[in-house]
Design a protein that fits this description.
Shape: globular
Structural class: mainly alpha
Largest sheet: 2 strands, antiparallel
Oligomer: single chain
Helix content: over 70%
Distance between the termini: 41 Å
Number of helices: 12
C-alpha cells in the first residue's frame, strides 16, 4: 500500500468512526443529559489525543501558544456546534443530521468574505445556491411533519453556522499554531463546558449508558486522529471525495441500528448539499486583503 492509498484508507476510517460516534450519541438520547454527553465525548477523546501528541513529540512542548484569545474564539464556536449537533440527533435521523453539517463550507464563503476579506468567485456562489436549495428541499416538507422535524433542521443549520465560525478561526490560527495545540485546547474547553452543566442535573448512568458514553469519546477521538493522519499522507484534493462518504456511513448506521429509512427529501437534498460544499470549499489558511494577511 502506497502513501496515497494509506491516506485514503485513513480518511474512510475516520468517516466511519465519526458516523459511529453519532450513532452512540443518538443511542444515548434518553439515558444521559446533553452536557453529560459533551463531557464524556470530549474528556475520553483526550486520552487517544494525548497519546498521539506524545508519540509525535508534541506533548507538552507542542501545546505552547501565542494566541490564547484565538483559541478561545475557536473553542466557543466549536463547543456550541457540538452541543447543537448532539441536540439535533434527538430530532433527526443520523443521515440528515450528518448531511446538514456539510452546509458549513457554504457558510464559510459568506463569513470569509465578511471577516477575512476573501474574494468570492462565481463558482463559490453557485455552491452557496446549491447548498441553500438542498436545505429548502429538506425544510419545506418539514412544515407539514410537525414541530419536531423543524427543530431538528434548525439545530442542524445552527450546527453548520457555528462550525463555519470555528473553521474560519482555525484557518486564522493555523498560520502560527500547531494542529495538536488547536485540537487539544478544543477538547479541553469542551470537557469543561460539558462539566459546567453538571449542576443542572446528570442522571446516573447504568452500565450500558456508561459504555456508550465512553465509546462516543473513543470514536470521536480516534476519528480525529485518523483524519489528521490522512492529510499527512495524501493531498486534501485527493481526499475530498471520500469525506462525503460520511453521509453514507451515517445512513447505514441509522438504518441498521434505528430503522431509519432515508426519505425522498433526503435523497434529493443530499446531492445538492454535497455539491454546494464541494463548490464552496475554499483552500488556504488565511486570505489577503489589501495585500496583507488578515487574522481574526
Amino acid at each position: 500500500m502506497n502513501e496515497t492509498q494509506l491516506g485514503i484508507l485513513l480518511r474512510v476510517i475516520s468517516g466511519v468512526l465519526f458516523a459511529a460516534m453519532m450513532a452512540t450519541v443518538k443511542a444515548l438520547e434518553d439515558g444521559a443529559a446533553l452536557g453529560q454527553v459533551v463531557f464524556f465525548r470530549s474528556a475520553v477523546a483526550m486520552v487517544p489525543l494525548l497519546i498521539f501528541l506524545w508519540l509525535r513529540n508534541e506533548f507538552p512542548a507542542g501545546l505552547a501558544t501565542r494566541r490564547p484569545l484565538g483559541h478561545l474564539k475557536r473553542c466557543v464556536f466549536g463547543a456550541t456546534a457540538m452541543f447543537t449537533s448532539f441536540a439535533a440527533l434527538a430530532f433527526l435521523p443520523i443521515a440528515e443530521a450528518a448531511m446538514l453539517t456539510y452546509l458549513s463550507p457554504v457558510m464559510v464563503v459568506a463569513l470569509a468574505a465578511v471577516l477575512l476579506g476573501e474574494h468570492v468567485t462565481a463558482r463559490r456562489w453557485w455552491g452557496v445556491l446549491a447548498g441553500l436549495s438542498g436545505v429548502m428541499v429538506l425544510t419545506v416538507p418539514a412544515f407539514g411533519e410537525g414541530e419536531s422535524a423543524l427543530i431538528g433542521i434548525a439545530l442542524g443549520i445552527a450546527t453548520a453556522a457555528f462550525t463555519a465560525g470555528a473553521l474560519i478561526q482555525v484557518r486564522a490560527l493555523a498560520l502560527s499554531e500547531s494542529p495538536g495545540a488547536i485540537a487539544f485546547y478544543f477538547a479541553l474547553f469542551c470537557t469543561l463546558a460539558g462539566l459546567a452543566t453538571w449542576p443542572l442535573g446528570w442522571p446516573s448512568p447504568d452500565g450500558v449508558t456508561l459504555v456508550l458514553l465512553i465509546l462516543s469519546g473513543l470514536f470521536g477521538g480516534t476519528a480525529h486522529i485518523a483524519m489528521t493522519l490522512s492529510f499527512r499522507y495524501t493531498e486534501a484534493s485527493v481526499l475530498a471525495p471520500f469525506e462525503y462518504l460520511s453521509i453514507l456511513w451515517a445512513a447505514i448506521f441509522g438504518l441498521a441500528l434505528f430503522s431509519e429509512t432515508p426519505a425522498l427529501t433526503f435523497v434529493i437534498a443530499a446531492p445538492l448539499v454535497i455539491a454546494g460544499a464541494i463548490l464552496a470549499s475554499t483552500p488556504g489558511a488565511v486570505a489577503k486583503k489589501n495585500g496583507r494577511l488578515k487574522r481574526i
